[in-house]
Amino acid sequence: MPNSERLLVLLRHGQSDWNLKNLFTGWRDPDLSPTGVEEATEAGRRLKAQGLTFDVAYTSALTRAQHTLALTLAALDQTGLPEHRDQALNERHYGDLCGLNKDDARKKWGEEQVHLWRRSYDVPPPGGESLKDTVARALPYYCQHILPDVLRGKRVLVAAHGNSLRALVMVLDRLTPETIPSMELATGVPLVYRLNADSTVASKDVLTA
Ligand SMILES: O=C(O)[C@@H](CO)OP(=O)(O)O
Question: What residues form the catalytic site here (predicted)?
Answer without folding.
Answer: 13 (tele-phosphohistidine intermediate), 91 (proton donor/acceptor)
